[in-house]
TrEMBL record:
Domain HTH marR-type as annotated: residue spans: 14-148
Annotated keywords: DNA-binding, Transcription, Transcription regulation
Protein name: MarR family transcriptional regulator
Stretches assigned to coiled coil: none
SUPFAM superfamilies, per the entry: Winged helix' DNA-binding domain
């Protein structure tokens, strides 16, 4: 069980932690929006999310992307169409079946993910560096427990995922 100094476990801590996480998520959305500023004429936040999924899991079928993004296949198709037009993803016939189409990142799409992720990482590092050392260590433990409870895989430092 994770124990955070100054926080007594109990029924009220769920509400307090939920409120704190909602506030933190607003901050992270703002960081995400700022990190997209340089490519905003080419990519929206939902489209960037699709690029990140492809960078993380590799080429995928449209229905798999739609499920991973929790959107309708028609929504995913429109996003893919726009990203193909922008030169950030491409459609390829699957090696397994000529009828299956696989969506994958282009070199330009990978560059966008890496550029935006680098900006996001720098912005978050700036925020974290302003926290006292002890609070940073407690935050790491708390966030690891939170993401583990939510079933989110950890971000590998060597692989820039961007949407984490």
């Amino acid at each position: 069980m994770l124990v955070i100094e100054g926080v007594e476990p109990g029924a009220d801590d769920v509400d307090e932690l939920t409120s704190a996480l909602l506030t933190a998520s607003r901050l992270l959305v703002a960081v995400s929006a700022r990190s997209l500023a340089a490519v905003q004429d080419r990519v929206t936040l939902p489209q960037f999310r699709l690029l990140v999924v492809l960078s993380w899991q590799g080429p995928a079928k449209l229905v798999t992307l739609a499920a991973g993004l929790d959107v309708n296949p028609s929504t995913a198709l429109r996003m893919v169409d726009r990203l193909v037009t922008a030169g950030l993803v491409e459609r390829r016939a699957s090696a397994r079946s000529g009828r299956e189409i696989s969506i994958e990142l282009t070199a330009a799409g990978r560059a966008v993910v890496e550029q935006v992720t680098a900006r996001r990482r720098a912005d978050i590092a700036g925020i974290v560096s302003r926290m006292p050392s002890g609070e940073r260590r407690a935050l790491v433990a708390a966030l690891r427990a939170f993401t583990e409870a939510g079933g989110e895989p950890p971000v590998a430092d060597a692989v820039p995922l961007g949407w984490s």
